[in-house]
Amino acid sequence: GQIDADKMYNIVMKWDWGNSGKSIIYHDPETRKNSISYRTNLARLMEALIMEGKMDKAEKVIDLAMEKMPVQYFEYYSMLEPFAIGYYEVGKKEKARAIISEVIKKYQENLTFYNSWKPSEQNFGAMDIVSDIEYYRSLLQVAESAEDLEFYNKEKVKFNNFNKMFERFGRKME
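The chain above was modelled as a monomer; its predicted structure follows.
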């Protein structure tokens, strides 16, 4: 369906987020899971604003999402890809890079951990390993699609090194 971008923007900017973006509260699993809906709705609003050429408002929506649902507390990293795309679309390359870099670091930490497992243990966790590799790849493709080739080429080398750790799972190299 469609949304009234201006009306939704005015409502969203007035939401009471409590302490959601702060470390003084415990971000329990249910709270983190609920962030999926918020992130999805904010991403839809951002996309509508971009389509309407309202780049300043779109940037404010992304900034709000990152402030109120920071990566380190809310996880669900795949839900952050639209915001990186949005930052590129509003001309904020450094902010897009910051999101991508922060999420990439999480995937690198996971893959480093999985690499410490015995091969038999890796087989048991193959779905998680392959998912992290593919989400990592997808983030790099965001930068490539935005023609941020300097960043993409630098990060692609790191990605390939992580991907090599799990060659036996048949993931193609970039």
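The radius of gyration is 17 Å.
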